[in-house]
Specification:
about 160 residues; alpha+beta; Beta-Lactamase; about 20% strand; elongated
Length: about 160
């Protein structure tokens, strides 16, 4: 995510709950929330069957490549991507212009249901990101004076590492 985001435990739990609810309501196998750098933020469902590190980085790369394609044809972005396989399908969407939501589902669900549930979940996720942003801004304002290193001087460092 962005540098101005701090993921506090409370918001992490809210993100996980929103993903669990989405997985259940969309009848999906697994749901992942990934930052645009390819790092997994949270997940829900049958995640043990996936190489989550590779999934996260490849998804971020896919979104970046698709953004390039969008710009080539004059679009700002493609906010939704869909990959259809023989058994499993992947729905990828951008949430709050900050994160990537990945829903993996099979024939127990449908693209229409997944799209409907993702729209609802995206609203919830955006609210959580807004709280994170506000907390991050408050923390950044207070951190100027709250640094544990603020009272260390150059003389202290020289004394520590000097002979």
């Amino acid at each position: 995510m962005c540098a101005d985001f701090v993921l506090y435990e409370e918001e992490f739990k809210h993100l996980e709950e929103a993903l669990r609810r989405l997985r259940q309501e969309a009848n999906a196998k697994a749901v992942f929330l990934i930052d645009k750098n390819g790092q997994q933020i949270a997940s829900a469902g049958e995640i043990e069957q996936f190489d989550t590190t590779s999934l996260a980085s490849l998804t971020a790369g896919n979104v970046a490549a698709t953004d390039g394609l969008a710009k080539l044809i004059g679009e700002r972005e493609f906010s939704v991507l869909f990959h259809e396989g023989q058994q499993d399908h992947i729905h990828i969407s951008i949430v709050a212009k900050r994160a990537i939501l990945v829903v993996i589902f099979d024939d127990r669900s449908s693209l229409g249901l997944v799209r409907l549930r993702v729209k609802r979940a995206s609203v919830d996720l955006e609210k959580i990101f807004e709280v994170m942003l506000q907390k991050g801004e408050k923390g950044a304002q207070g951190s100027i004076h709250a640094s544990p290193f603020s009272e260390i001087t150059d003389d202290d460092i020289d004394a520590l590492f000097g002979e």
